[in-house]
Amino acid sequence: MAPANALLERIIDASREPALYLQGGVPDEFEGRFEALTLHLFLVLRRLRDLPAPAADMAQDLIDASFAYLELGFRQGGISDIAVPKRMKKIGRSFYGRLSGYEEALAAQEPGAFETALKRNIAPGIDAPALARHVDAAASALATRSLDDILSMDPLFPPFADSITT
Predict the structure, then answer these.
(1) End-to-end alpha-carbon separation of the chain, Å?
(2) 8-64 pLDDT, tens per residue?
(3) What's the CA gap between 117 and 99, in Å, rounded?
(4) pTM, to two decimals
(5) What DSSP character marks residue 166?
(6) Rounded Cα distance, 120 and 111, in Å
(7) Alpha carbon distance 1, 42 (integer Å)
(8) Residue 42 C-alpha from the chain's centroid
(9) What is the DSSP letter of 154?
(10) Taking the CB of residue 123, how many other CB atoms lie within 10 A of it?
C-alpha cells in the first residue's frame, strides 16, 4: 500500500495547485477540492486501466488509499463515527459517477462534451476550456508512461498554469 499512498500524495499535490482555484475557478471548499482530486485520480486510473498487470492491483490500492484519505478528512473534520459511513457512501457514489461521466464525455468525441461534464461536476463558473486542456495535456503525458514511471514521476502532471493561456 506504500506505493499507492505515495502516488496518492502526488495526486493530491496536483489537485491542490493554486492556479486550479485562482485562475481555473474551481471552488476552494470541500466539494471543489474533492472534484479536483477526483479529476486527477480519473486521469491516473484511466492510464492504469490500460497498462498490464500489476497496474490493476495498483489502481485498486490507489482507490482504497483515496477513500481512506477522504474518510480521515471527515473524521478530522469532526464528523461523528455514526455519520462517516453515510458520508462515505455518498462520496463513493459521487466518485464513481464522476469517473463514468468523464469517461462518457471523452468517448463521445463531441466538441465541448468534456467541458460540459466539467461544468456539471465541478461548477458552472469554472474555466472549462483551460481545465479540458489540462486534462488533455495530462492524459497525453500519462499515455507514454509505464507503471514504474507513474510511481516515480514527480511532478505527475503538467502544471495547470500552463493550460490557462494555451
Answers:
(1) 37
(2) 999 999 999 999 999 999 999 989 999 999 999 999 999 999 999 999 999 999 999
(3) 11
(4) 0.93
(5) -
(6) 16
(7) 19
(8) 5
(9) S
(10) 17
Count Cβ atoms below 10 Å from residue 70 Cβ, excluding itself: 19
Percent of the chain with pLDDT over 70: 98
Residues 43, 15 contacting (CB under 8 angstroms): no
Residue by residue, DSSP assigns 20-77 as HHHTS---SSHHHHHHHHHHHHHHHHHHHHHSPTTHHHHHHHHHHHHHHHHHHHHHHT
The three cell numbers locating residue 163: 493550460
pLDDT for 166 beyond 60: no
Within 13 A of 47's CA, how many CA atoms are on the CB side?
24
Residue 72 C-alpha cell reads as 480521515
**102 burial type by CB count under 10 A (0-12 exposed, 13-18 middle, 19+ buried):** buried
